[in-house]
Amino acid sequence: MSSSNNTKKRRVGGDTPAVETDNNNNELIAIKSSIDELVHQNRTQNDNIANMLQLMKGMKDDMKGMQSEMKDMRGEIAQLRKKCDKSSADIISRFDGMENKQKHHDVLLKNQKWEYSAPGLTVSYLDSIGVDQRDEVEDLLRQIQKYTEEMRYGTSDGDITLDINEVEYNEELLPHWKEFANALEQYKYDLKFSPKDNKSILQLVGMELSDEVVDLLSEALKSTHFRHVLLQDNNFGEKGAGFALDYLKGNDKCEEFAFRDNVMGTQNVEELCRIIPLQHPSKC
Amino acid sequence: MLVLYNCKGADVNGYEMLKSVMNAGKLKFVVLYLSDNEINTGGDTFIATFLAKNPILATLDVTRNELNDDDAGAIAIVLRRNSELRTLNISRNNLTNEGWEALGKAVFDKTSLNSAADSNHTCNIDFPDDDDYDDVRQINGDISSDKYLDPDYVRQKKIYKVLSDRNRNRSNVEHFDEDMQVELLPDMLQLIEEYSNYHIVEIGEEEVTPPQDTQDIEPLSIMFEILQRWDKSLAVFEAFGSQSSVR
């Protein structure tokens, strides 16, 4: 009885514990459902973020690939530019070579009618010098004529070496030096046209070179650039050294410069030291 | 290449000329001839300082000047650190035996194996023709023919020459460090064998044979000396003997 009463009381009361429980359960279910919804939403968002990250990673990889391609293309462009520069330098060089070859041939054609015309030495001059000196002078003139003709006729092997044992200068030698200097002047096309492994030597050993001869050679050698130059025992003082250094300064092909038994003054040394840094390292 | 041979004018000091030219051309000249220019350093060490910087200079000719033993000594010190200079012509100066010996030590210091290994292996010097310099005259090559040898070959040759020289008076063991472990013995014997073959040089796939010193001692002789005279090597034989008896 008591238990049925109790039941009644609960029912009469309306807000019985059973109803409360149901309500609570419903609330819990609702909350759980909300949480599930939120979790689901969160998962979806996370999936979206992961997808986006994946997408970004893919884009990043694509970017990297594109950057790498760009880098390769830049490298290729640089290489192509280099090739272009090289080809253009090559074309210019070949063109210059052809021009020099043409000029060289023109000079050779012109020189077919040329003859060595410096007069012989006078008897009075030959008598005035000793026998030994006479032999040396005659040897010098033979060498001058030989090299002058070789340069004029295009038969030179690139080695121009005047080598004798001490000849003093005399006015009678000047016409011969003029012939030699003129031949040197037009020999520039031969030197420019000839292959790089050919000889390119100018050696003046043992003869006195007067101021006049130095001026002649200086003018003649302005564009005639030998790779190896030796000036030895020329008794031409500091003016001669100045000529040699001017030649060295203007000659960007010079690989060997030898100055022996000739005087160099302080100014010459200073000038030399100004010139040296201008020379290309590979030429020294 | 720059050649300034006997071209010092009356108002030019040869040494000042050398300094100016070297300073101006330190990154330019591979070959520099400055013979017969009355070059006198007066105790200054410019040439040595220049060479110490290991410039690209491969040939220096300062023959027929007024350089002395102090100059040679200073150059000798820096030569050990210079691997570019291939030819040094310094004869016909005021050098005495002292200067030449210093230069000789620079290219081949026989004091120890380390000093021999650390000598200059690239520079040919125009030593006097005296017998005193036979050992060093062509040690790095032949100056008269501008023939240069591979520095590794020269280094090994020098090391083996020291070992050979010591073997002649049975003194190799005297130079061993007291703390040296007997465990090093196999490596030591192997190295002797290797150094004795210094004249067989492999360049790429090719095997070339530069000249072998006719004064060389056979490697077996050096090995025998070490095994015989090094008291620690006895332990090896004892160990070997005990192993044999166990078997």
Quick structural overview:
Chain A is an alpha/beta fold and 284 residues long. Chain A is built from nine helices and four strands. Chain A folds into two domains: 1-113; 129-283, Alpha-Beta Horseshoe (Leucine-rich repeat, LRR (right-handed beta-alpha superhelix)), CATH 3.80.10.10.
Detailed description of the structure:
Chain A has 284 residues and is an alpha/beta fold. Chain A has 2 domains: 1-113; 129-283, Ribonuclease Inhibitor (Leucine-rich repeat, LRR (right-handed beta-alpha superhelix), Alpha-Beta Horseshoe). Chain A is 67% helix and 9% strand. Chain A contains 9 helices and 4 strands, in the order H-H-H-H-E-H-H-E-H-E-H-E-H. Chain A has helices spanning 2-13, 17-111, 123-128, 131-153, 174-186, 188-193, 211-220, 237-250, 266-275, and strands at residues 159-167, 201-207, 228-232, 256-260. Chain A has a 4-stranded parallel sheet with strand order 1-2-3-4, with helices on one face. In chain A, helix 7 (211-220) links the parallel strand 2 and strand 3 (228-232). In chain A, helix 4 runs parallel beside helix 5, helix 5 (174-186) runs parallel beside helix 7 (211-220) and helix 8 (237-250) runs parallel beside helix 9. The radius of gyration of chain A is 49 Å and the shape is rod-shaped. Residues 1-13 and 280-284 of chain A have low confidence and may be disordered. With 247 residues, chain B is an alpha/beta fold. Chain B folds into 2 domains: 1-148, Ribonuclease Inhibitor (Leucine-rich repeat, LRR (right-handed beta-alpha superhelix), Alpha-Beta Horseshoe), CATH 3.80.10.10; 150-247, no CATH class. In chain B, 42% of the residues lie in helices and 10% in strands. Chain B has 10 helices and 9 strands. In chain B, the strands form 3 sheets. A 5-stranded parallel sheet of chain B has the order 1-2-3-4-5, with no helix packed on it. Chain B has a two-stranded antiparallel sheet with strand order 6-7. In chain B, strands 8-9 form a two-stranded antiparallel ribbon. In chain B, strand 2, helix 2 and strand 3 (59-61) form a beta-alpha-beta unit. In chain B, helix 3 (69-79) packs parallel to helix 4 (97-107). The longest helix of chain B is centred in the middle third of the chain and has 18 residues, at 151-168. Chain B is elongated and about 85 Å long. The mean pLDDT of chain B is 86. Classes of the chains: A alpha/beta (284), B alpha/beta (247). At the A-B interface, strand 4 and helix 9 of A face strand 1 and helix 1 of B.
